[in-house]
Structure formats: C-alpha cells, structure tokens
User: Fold this.
Amino acid sequence: MSTITIYHNPKCGTSRNTLAMIRASGEEPEVIEYLKTPPGRDRLVELVAATGLSVRQVLRKKGTPYEELGLDDPKWTDDELIDFMVAHPILMNRPIVVTPLGTVLSRPSEKVLDVLPNADKIGIFTKEDGEVVGKSGQSA
Assistant:
C-alpha cells in the first residue's frame, strides 16, 4: 500500500501534472478519483484541516455550482460549506495530496514538491503547459 494518496481528477491538467511528478519521484500513489469516490464528510474535514487552509480556500469556483449556490455569501459557515462539498464533490479543489511529510492542495502542481519524500529524484519537470519546473519547485 502506498504512503502517498492523491485526490485526483484526470480531466484537470494540474492534477495530471501533480500525479506525474509523484510518479517521477519513484512513488506509485493511491489515486482516488474523488468525483467517483468522494471523501466522506469526516475525511473531508480532516483533509482541509491537514492542509492548513480555510474551507473557503479549498472551495473550487470555476466549473462548479459555486455561483449558482451563492457560496460567495459570507453567511455560510465552514460546516455548511463542507456540506455543500459533500453534496457536490466538484466543489472540492484539487488535487489534494497526502504524504508522510504533510498534506497540500497542490495548486500549482509543483506545491507537491513540498511534501514529496523523494522530490530530489524529479530533477527538471516540464508541465503540460510547457512550463519547466526545477527541483526547488521554482520555474526554471
């Protein structure tokens, strides 16, 4: 069983880049396509807390019912926003990566390097959009 888990959307370029970086480091992660197998409420709360981000920072706006549901309204509590993400998993921003070194919302994809045990094995990585990323996660 892998010690790395990625909550992945194969239609998302950032998620694909992140998965490719994990694999380039020599790891084969547990891949959870969260739209097919969404995390339950408790797991989602754990993931958000582990990232150190607010619930609002983990909400995805683009390509989701965010505006339609009026989620920009400050009246919504964190618990209510979590409930919306459970009901509409597309609202969960991705990819979220869990490793023994920590949990990150890997946006941009090179943020995964901060928690990847063997990040030094990657060297130079070219993302899908052609951007070249160096070992330190900085654009090369």
User: Anything to note?
Assistant: The two ends are 33 Å apart (CA to CA). Residues 13-24 form the longest helix (12 residues). Residues 101 and 115 are 5 Å apart (CA to CA).
